[in-house]
Amino acid sequence: MLDKFSLRKNKKEVGASTYSKEHIDLSSVPSHIAIIMDGNGRWAKKRGLPRIAGHHEGMKVVRKIVKASNEIGVKVLTLYAFSTENWKRPQSEVDYLMKLPEEFLGSFLPELVTENVQVRVMGNKEQLPAHTMRAINKAMIDTKENDGLILNFALNYGSRFEIIEGIKQIIKDTNNGKLNINDINEELFSEYLMSADLADPDLLIRTSGEVRLSNFMLWQLAYAEFWFTEVLWPDFEENNFYQAIVEYQRRGRRFGGI
Ligand code: FPP
Hints:
With 258 residues, this protein is of the alpha/beta class. The chain has helices at residues 2-13, 40-46, 51-72, 91-114, 130-142, 159-175, 186-191, 238-250, and strands at 32-36, 76-83, 118-122, 150-157, 203-206, 225-228. Strands 3-4-2-1-5-6 form a six-stranded parallel beta sheet, sandwiched between helices. Helix 5 links the parallel strand 3 (118-122) and strand 4 (150-157). The model is unreliable at 1-13 (pLDDT under 50). Bound molecules: farnesyl diphosphate.
């Protein structure tokens, strides 16, 4: 009760636009933040621009949020950049989205290297065009020794696909004697997912007013705090990000306990 009251009171005192790094308790920053970056198309439509203009603007926001995450000590930032369902979009939009990693890394890879960011990609890489793979492979190689923020792009990622692939591999390993059925538990199953060596997200952010998971990290988000905002991804700024973290820090995470 007290918590709810103070939350309401604080909301009045601090408007979204006034959130800054100073409002964050640096001793309890979420280690892993996952973001569903939504609303690029609507942002463009509102301005009479083609949808790809929204994606391009969204790419610039990625840079800002990576920087902000690094500054406050976030360990892992997972960004949903392309889902297994996104292939259903018009070919021209898919082609553009597949060029974005190249453009982003072409502009920002040197900075990511100096900022000690490690780039990773999680998703079904086999279906990605060769030019996209070249760009992300270069980024992964150039940053593999970095031990700061892990920038994990979910690219051609779908959680159900990931879970099915994990199950198939577990069955194979059981049949070939590498695994005993009694070894299968939650921890082991996590190791068969694409996020294998990453801790589960603590905080999930979704922009643009949509309130669903859209096949994103269904297993890994079991205990995450969810934070939704009406702000469209290209309009998302550092202060929105800080607001999400401040509200996360006000919540009491109990992991099923009391
Ligand atoms: C959802 O908005 C967004 C996407 C499918 C693409 C997200 C990609 C970026 C933000 C850029 C990624 C940058 C890098 C570096 C890879 P939507 O198109 O579904 O928006 P709408 O719901 O308003 O139509």
